[in-house]
Amino acid sequence: MIISDVDSAFRALADPTRRRILQLVANQPLSAGEIANHFQTTRPAVSQHLGVLREAGLLSESRDGSRRLYQAESMAVDDVINHLQSFWSPRLQELKRQAERKERHRHAKP
Amino acid sequence: MIISDVDSAFRALADPTRRRILQLVANQPLSAGEIANHFQTTRPAVSQHLGVLREAGLLSESRDGSRRLYQAESMAVDDVINHLQSFWSPRLQELKRQAERKERHRHAKP
DNA sequence: ATAGGCTGTAAGCTGTTGCTTACGTTAGCG
DNA sequence: CGCTAACGTAAGCAACAGCTTACAGCCTAT
Question: How far does A54 lie from chain B, in Å, by closest CA?
């Protein structure tokens, strides 16, 4: 588990702007200014979003001179997806068990 | 796509209490009071959480006399997981493409 | 009909979020 | 050394989220 805590990661992903940012820097690192150019809001607002994503462990930061490059922490996003799946999988296992039980009943008394 | 809109579903899942509620009613329907008994907060607070989950399409409501039974809308949760995966999969595809390109280069000039 | 559960809902409060404007800071360049 | 570009950060504000208390609406049983 890379992400610091699940709640902050979920909250970070709950914002559509932040999800778009994450998509932007999924394949290549981008500077804060380049990221901000993709949005209508001001640069400080984007910078704050970057802070939230970084705080949640979904983003890694590196420096290139006076610029700061951001890139998605892909394994962290995978962690969130995996957590959501394992959070939900007991429900599927239970469904499967119920189906099997019903199947056995059908065989027991036809 | 069952869920009304992705944003509301994400925001609904961002709250840990609501995720626990969703787990509680994943396998069997429960009344609002039974659900509230699992938490320290007051019953109205839980009722509001139920409203958020229902609004997001993650919960279905049925009536049993004076009680109201809630149950997770399993396909809606699956939708969210699938959306997250397809939202993130382009990144994986790109990684794969880069790996293949690198592989071809390795073959081209050894 | 009326009494009593079981519940949603309104009102009000507090903490948080997301935005903007203004300012501080660091790197690179003349 | 200044000067500029590229940033983060503080301050302030409107909107919202989540909680509690108080109240109103059903349904059932008597």
Answer: 17
Phi, psi of A66 (to 5 degrees): -85, -10
Residue nearest to nucleotide D7 (CA to C1'): A67
What's the pLDDT score for residue B1? 60
Instruction: Put residue A22 in one of left, alpha, beta given phi > 0 → left and psi -120 to 50 → alpha.
Output: alpha
Q: Residue A98: which of B28, B53, B11 has the closest Cα?
A: B28
pLDDT digits (tens, 9 = 90+) for B11-46: 999 999 999 999 999 989 999 999 999 999 999 999
Q: Which burial class, exposed, middle or buried, applies to A22 when counting CB atoms under 10 A from its CB (0-12, 13-18, 19+)?
A: buried
Per-residue model confidence as pLDDT tens digits over B40-78: 999 999 999 999 999 999 999 999 988 999 999 999 999
Domain count, chain B: 1
Residue A83 lies in a domain: yes
The answer as to whether B1 is a domain residue is: no
Give me the domain span that covers residue B37: 6-108
Position with higher pLDDT, B30 vs A63: B30
Residue contact B23–A84, C-beta within 8 A: no
Q: Is residue A1 part of a domain?
A: no
> Cβ of B75 under 8 Å from any chain A Cβ?
no
Q: Does A11 lie at the interface with B, CB-CB under 8 angstroms?
A: yes
Q: Kindly report the CATH number assigned to the domain that includes residue B91.
A: 1.10.10.10
Asked whether residue A44 is assigned to any structural domain, the reply reads yes
Higher pLDDT, A63 or B106: A63
Closest residue to A91, CB basis, from B11, B26, B92: B26
In this prediction, residue A64 carries a pLDDT of: 86
